[in-house]
Design brief:
The protein is of the alpha+beta class and 120 residues long. It has one domain: Nuclear Transport Factor 2, Chain: A. 28% of the residues lie in helices and 47% in strands. It contains three helices and six strands. A six-stranded mixed beta sheet has the order 2-1-6-5-4-3, covered by helices on one side. The protein is globular and about 40 Å long. The mean pLDDT is 96. It comes from Catellatospora aurea.
């Protein structure tokens, strides 16, 4: 991991986390590219609309805590992150998952182009 890649991912993931924690699905979706492949724990979708629907279906009070495990610069404008995420709920045990994201520079910003959760 390098500081530059960590900073890129942290910036994007902190925005994502803030929107998830506030249960603002549209704001979550704003962190994704127009053609993002999104695989939560339900069937995959493509694009921000599916991301917003997925997070709208999540319970109020769900929060996310993440920890970067690995980062890789795949190209000048593409960074991969592999992380551990703990999704906490008000009425059930925390769900511990692993998340792989690929973020891509779009203009002056970085957005999620690929998001895939796995439970091991």
């Amino acid at each position: 991991m390098t500081a530059a890649e960590d900073q890129i991912l942290t910036t994007v993931l902190d925005r994502w986390k803030s929107a998830v924690d506030a249960h603002e699905p549209q704001r979550v979706a704003e962190n994704f590219t127009h053609d993002a492949i999104f695989q939560g724990l339900h069937p995959y979708t493509v694009g921000p609309g599916g991301v917003a629907e997925y997070y709208d279906s999540q319970p109020i009070g769900m929060t996310a805590a993440y920890r970067l495990l690995e980062t890789r610069r795949l190209a000048d404008d593409v960074v991969l992150g592999y992380l551990a995420v703990d999704f906490s709920f008000t009425d059930r045990p925390t769900k511990n998952v692993f998340l792989c994201v690929i973020v891509r520079r779009v203009g002056d910003d970085w957005l999620v182009a690929h998001y895939q959760v796995s439970q091991l």
